[in-house]
Predict the structure of ABC transporter ATP-binding protein.
Amino acid sequence: MIVAEHLVKEFRLAERKPGLLGSLSTLLTRRHRVVRAVDDVSFEIPAGTKTAYIGANGAGKSTTIKMLTGIMTPTSGRCTVAGLEPYRHRQRNARTIGVVFGQRSQLWWDLSVPDSFRILRRVYDIPEPVYRRNLGLFRELLDIDALGSTPVRQLSLGQRMRAEIAASLLHDPAVLFWDEPTIGLDMVLKDAVRHLVNRAHRELGTTVVLTSHDIADIGAICDSALVVDHGRVVHQGTLKDLLRTADHRSVVFDHRDGTAAGTVRARIEAGLPGVRATPDDGGRIRVDYPTGRYTSRQVLTFLLDHFDLADWYAPEPGLEDVLRKIYGRARVPGDTPDGAGRTPDGAA
Ligand SMILES: Nc1ncnc2c1ncn2[C@@H]1O[C@H](COP(=O)(O)OP(=O)(O)OP(=O)(O)O)[C@@H](O)[C@H]1O
């Protein structure tokens, strides 16, 4: 079980004024502003679930994961992973968790991947059969042997990510924290990575916390969702519950009465104010309606009354639509650009 209780993380940033005089005055006055990256966040992630930690850029996801993995200490509040406060018990916590930060390597920069794995094997005291089984899987699915003896710093982004993912799974951790794990990976490797994590969950009961801007990753891996906006949790529940918050639904239909697409559109939009009708390339019409205003029955009845329907279906609302709505609200005019003043390694 992963628990966050009123978790807060603030960063103090020196205010910099532009120009030479500005730099001098910055040195003299030393004014600071505080960025509250994580703002009183509380949640419980049950063991054995696969949770997507979702939010727009700068919402506070990576900062939360850094506290859960012990890299950062909270400003206030607390969190526990399998009963341990990660920032107080970094060593013990490290045995329980496997971590990937797409933006930051967990491997030794000057060592080759096989050398890194040999060290990790000792650090985690991995039993021989487990080590062999996992290496076999990584050879088969991530083509890890092809990385050869090249030092990690000379690997391409995709090659490094393959090694990072393998390293995070090497010791069969109880909890995986994966922050943007598939950046730089091609489609085949993304599939392999999804297979590996789902296998670990199915066979070992691994708890997964995934941060990704790749909607397909979330759909292929996660069953639950935790959505943050401006450092605060705005939704926690199953992925299905999140999809049900969609404020628009759609009906797609084919008609056989030969009416021109433009006329069909005009007739629908006049008869059902607030509804949008869009012809697609295949000759079908997609009707998007606000759920607060119409039921699917009302929309369908209108279509049946006005057109000779050859076929119709109601697609499930997509995660992308739901997130676009949440992220759209998150953009406040005049917001400062995210990431300003970050330290190079992101550490506290
Ligand atoms: N080390 C740091 N020093 C100062 N500010 C920081 C630091 N790390 C993060 N921040 C700020 O905290 C806020 C949250 O950043 P965080 O990286 O947690 O967001 P995120 O949700 O992971 O974003 P993204 O999706 O872009 O990776 C941002 O405004 C960011 O600029």
Notes: The first helix runs from residue 19 to 29.
